[in-house]
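Folds vary. Our protein:
___
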Amino acid sequence: QNPYWRYFKHFADYISRVCYMNSQGVPIVDVGLYYPIEEMQGETYIKGITKKGRAIDAAFNTILNRLIENQIDVDMIDGESLLKAEISDGRLHVGNESFSVLLLPDAARICDELLRKLDDFKLLGGKVIYYATQKESVLVSPDEIGNAISEAIQPDVCVIKGERSDLYVNHRKIENKDFYFVANSSPIARELTLLLRQKGFASKLSPQNGESDAVCHRIIGNGTLVDLSLDEDEGVWIVIDSENEFQTCVEERITEEISMTRILVTILAGAALSGIIGYFLIPVLRTIKAGQSI
């Protein structure tokens, strides 16, 4: 009796494509967030969680949300995994992931072995940032963590123009190409200019029909500027082909939508900026409304 049932296949096929693509290759995640499971266990008793434990929990969740809301991808790592991690090229390698920044709460219980690991990580170029779990702390507050990371490293994705709220990103490298999944999880269409750290020829891949289109872009000193139009509740992949870095965008040649003046303004604006799977399940509202075939 559900009126949406006849359109469910469109939604299921869309989700299937997104899940498949976002599980291929290797994830590109700069930030590792220490998972304070041992600290929480130490602050949990029969009568409940202590005030300190609630503060640790609140700060951890705030950090996680602030990073995702600011287009900074993050993954969690516990103390045991940290001890097993290998360090090279200024990154902490765990499984198929590697982090250049590690975030820890001021309440972290760090043993001598882990402390030596963190010292080695910093010595070889890694960044370790401690954040505050108490209001009176002088460390970085959870709400300011995005700025702290942007000062430590160049962000993988930076919103140069347009609204950044309800905008989520995921970056994976598949063979020699970089796939940035960009999802507008809002009921309002938006125009964006993104600065992607990876350099190369940019194209747009639709998860609704698998079609690939040229997208206006410019390669600059610290990445690729991409102009992107997203409808409400729309998600697309921006594909960066680093082997074709000097290829000219066809749409860009024909329409000349981006003048050199605009590029200069965009770059200057970007320089002034400091810079979970559930939210990637983007509803195919427009497809369901239109009843179109995928």
About this structure: Confidence is low (pLDDT under 50) at residues 248-294. The CA atoms of residues 171 and 180 lie 4 Å apart.
